[in-house]
Amino acid sequence: MTKKGQISWQESFHTPILPDGIERLVDLAYSTTIKEKSFRLYKYNTKHFTDEYEYYWSERIRFELIDNDGNCTFEFPYEYSLNDLYDAVRESSSGINEFIDDFLKP
User: Fold this and answer.
1) pTM (2 decimals)?
2) Alpha-carbon distance 106 to 87, whole Å?
């Protein structure tokens, strides 16, 4: 529905609260409202420790149901299709398709 333009997303007014030092926001957070429920979608990095002082960062997408103050009330389980959703949301929210269409007009 996002790709078809039936659901529109915008930059979220509420930045997600992430555990300090363990997770970090990678890009913009996006939000939408569907049937009076608000949702937030964002990409983040999380630390994975391999030893006491050794770690690596992995990238994930988080999809949440949020309240009016931007607090997460439910986090949807991660699945790989969230990457596709995030890419579609980012593309549609950027306005790049409209820009290209306008730019390529004769």
Assistant:
1) 0.81
2) 29
pLDDT digits (tens, 9 = 90+) for 59-69: 999 999 999 99
Based on its alpha-carbon atoms, the radius of gyration of the chain, rounded to whole angstroms, reads 16
Residue 28's SS3 state is: strand
Burial 74-101 (b: 16+ CB within 10 A, else e): eeeeeeeebeebbebbbebbeeeeeeee
Find the length of the chain. Answer: 106
Task: Write out the two tokens for 69.
Answer: 């103050």
Residue found under tokens 């991660």: 78
pLDDT band at 8 (very low <50, low <70, confident <90, very high): confident
Terminal-residue alpha carbon distance, the chain: 30
The secondary structure of 33-95 as a DSSP string is EETTEEEEEEEEEEEEESSSS-EEEEEEEEEEEE-TTS-EEEEPPP-THHHHHHHHHHHHHHT
